[in-house]
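Input record (Table S2, row 447):
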Amino acid sequence: MNVSARIDAVYAQVLRRNPGETEFHQAVGEVLHTLAPVLRAHPDYVDTRIVERLCEPERQIIFRVPWVDDRGEVHVNRGFRVEFSSALGPYKGGLRFHPSVNLGIVKFLGFEQIFKNALTGLAIGGGKGGADFDPKGRSTGEVMRFCQSFMTELYRHLGEHTDVPAGDIGVGSREIGYLFGQYKRVTNRYEAGVLTGKGVSWGGSHARTEATGYGTVYFVQEMLTARGLHLDGRRVVVSGSGNVALYAIEKIHALGGHVVACSDSSGYLVDERGIDVTLLKEIKEVRRERISAYAEARPTASFSARGSVFDVPCDIALPCATQNELDEQSAIALVKNSVVAVAEGANMPCTPAAINVLREAGVLFGPGKAANAGGVATSALEMRQNASRHQWTFQQTETQLADVMRNIHAQCRATAEAYDAPENYVLGANATGFLRAAEAMDAQGLV
Ligand code: GLU
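Output record (glutamic acid complex):
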């Protein structure tokens, strides 16, 4: 069987084995379709079925999460942890609490994490987890009880050398605190390296909160520089207003760009004076309100409940909200408005059709596995600090983050060029990540 036929067969098997898991199918399809030239150069990886093995998680855990709300009513949620690959280190990846979470979503995220984590060059495998719990409108006490119940089951699967979760959508430092507290109670161990994204005063790393957003902007800067372009004075649109978006906006402003729009699930916001991050943080993180509150507080801003944030003309677009938020139509609108670069701060925010439109128009496109790897990279730096019982300064940590992002960019470019596809960061990221994981698997026998 030739390589293309073999890849088609692997994909057909993934579809058969994982019925209805559309996001997982999409994530696998996107990787497999870029790997053909890599596998042609490495026929041994075809013979030893490394691709098939990578598409099958090492372990999938699904569990019941019962909890009681403030009125005494009982709720039952479903919890997940998919331990995808330990080829390069302990399973590593965030937890997502959102009503849309199901096995297919967790698997797509876990699959992406293998390649992203490999790309960082740090010793971390890939995994992901979460629950279909909706934190929206829940009190702090309810969130705490949910986290405690979730960890009461999950703890037995974790460990600093086994599986190390962190945050994702709906899981920030508050939730990591409750999860860590419960892990400590049930294990009687202050095992700091079992979770990352901890508070800076109790084992967390400086710059972890900022890392994903900052890292995405560093990656954009590298892509621009490689084409002889600059960030300075550029008009930028960022979707979302969560952790990734907030710190992407902050860093864009620090580097001379101008962010004019952002969004949340209720709509989007335009502020031609530039998004005021301090106000946005206060609204989203302290008051936990919708972004329309920003428009009420700033006379220069307007809020729209309809349409897409990507209709706002810009030079650079950073989708930082969630999967499949930037579709073909949005990509066409961006190209019509002469966008120069698009980088994924979120995981798989661009549909395959959108990526095609952008790439065919010659837009610089930074896939999430590369562009948003700064978060998990800084988690690995947090693990390193925990292992040595030492804490670096903000400056030291941010310098290392910037180095990691520069390296990721350089490696993506070098790999893409080696396969005769310059500026194809999708191929560059997938191939580099795959080759690292594959080499380790090959060395470790039939795993
Ligand atoms: N959830 C983040 C990601 O998508 C971070 C994971 C981590 O820090 O382990 O990469």
